[in-house]
Amino acid sequence: MPYLPEGELLNKEENRLYINNPEKLPEALYGQKILEAKALICDREHNLRLNLGGMRAVIPREDGAIGIREGSVRDIAIISRVNRPVCFVINRIEEDENGKIAILSREKAQRMCFDNYIDTLTPGDIIDAKVSRTENFGVFADIGCGVAALMPIDAVSVSRIEHPGERFRAGMNIKAVVKSIENGRISLSHKELLGTWAENAAKFSAGETVTGIVRSIESYGSFIELTPNLAGLAEVHPDIREGMRVSVYIKSIIERKMKIKLIIIDTFDDREPPKRPEYFLSSGHIDRFVYSPESCPRVVETVFE
Question: Residue 187 and residue 183: Cα distance in Å, rounded?
Answer without folding.
Answer: 11
